[in-house]
Amino acid sequence: MMQFGRLINEVESLRQRLFDLREVDQENMRLKGLLSFKQKSPLRLIAARVIARSPDSWSSSIIIDKGRYNGIKRGMAVINTQGLIGRVIESAENNSKIMLINDPSQGISSIVQRSHKEGLVNGCLGPNLIMRYLADDAQIEAGDIIITSELSQVYPKGLLVGRVINIGKEFSGLSRYALIKPAADLSAIEEVLVIIP
Amino acid sequence: MKKWLLILLSIIILLTLQIKWPAAFSFFNLKPDLLLAFAIALVFYFNFKIALIGAALAGLFKDAFLPSFLAMNTFSFSIWSYLVFRLSSQISTENNYVRLAIILIVALFNNAVIGIQSLNSGNFIPAGIFLRNLLVVSVYTLALSPLILKLTRRIAA
Questions:
Q1: Are B19 and A97 inside 8 Å of each other by CB?
Q2: 10-residue stretch averages of pLDDT, chain A, 197 residues long
Q3: Chain A contact present for B11, CB below 8 A
């Protein structure tokens, strides 16, 4: 009976270890991808880990574990292996605050990769972004890829923002808007890369 | 002194919970405002001075982690604390249901104020997302308030 109890405990402990190892394995895969991306990318990048998220639901930001000590400054663009994440809005000695692209106060000058038509991508707190001020005759359709434009003062040109999922007409009738699904999964960011200009 | 330490510790724990809120428990990527519930709960169990300073501290801690530079929560938490204190001298707030109703009303108003302030500063928030944030965050805050009230009662005891 005692041996049975001991075996049960051992199974529980091994199961717990298996869960831990699975988590380590997933982290290892993510870090490998990040390292490979960093080595292949022509950009100068600093890898950082997400340590906290915005405590309220009316803004969208994260805090990373690298700051001024590592060369991170306000205004730098932040990406991950999937695409654009946001920009640094505050930098302390050992941590930095990043405003994500789905924060409503974000405005990213972007273009449709296929037709090079310009628009302004705004966050609206939801899972998608909105690209506004598109000309009425702009060539844009669902599935088009959206990248940052060279007009952007903050973001380097050509960073992947997301993909068009729907197009509509603005209330005024003067221009169109497009709903964009961000390339990066903004609700599950674990590691990021800060671009050093 | 011990009570102050416990209040400070509770604020830190609730803030840590809020910034590390597990994705599995966040509906539509939204989380409850535990610090607001705590700030209001302080009014029910402590004298006005402690409740007001506690509320301002909770707001200040929350503001420190927000992208906005305006200390919006420090002001709003203090104002709600004052208003609930005034209200509690007019009506009986000894019943837990009344306390929960007050927390829900404050959460609705607080979220509405923050949302309108965000819209007013030129941000674009679709009406559906505004309403979803307003209702889900307020109701989620209300759902966890009994635990916050229990915690505050323990500190006050």
A1: no
A2: 84 88 84 78 86 87 92 92 92 93 89 90 88 86 91 86 90 85 89 90
A3: no
Please, where in chain A does CATH 2.40.10.340 lie? 10-99+187-196
* CA distance, residue A58 to nearest chain B CA (Å): 7
Q: What is the pTM of this model?
A: 0.82
Q: Does B97 touch chain A (CB under 8 A)?
A: no
Beta bridge partners of B134: none
CATH topology of domain A10-99+187-196: Thrombin, subunit H (2.40.10)
List, as one string, the DSSP characters of A122-151: EE-SSSSEEEEEEETT----TT-EEEE-TT
Of B89, B92, B107, B114, which is closest to residue B148 (Cα–Cα)? B107
B-contacting residues of A 73-102, CB under 8 Å?
Answer: 89-90, 97, 99
Q: Is the ipTM of this complex over 0.85?
A: no
Q: Does domain A107-182 have CATH number 2.40.10.350?
A: yes
Q: In chain A, which residues fall in CATH 2.40.10.350?
A: 107-182
CA distance B133 to B139: 10
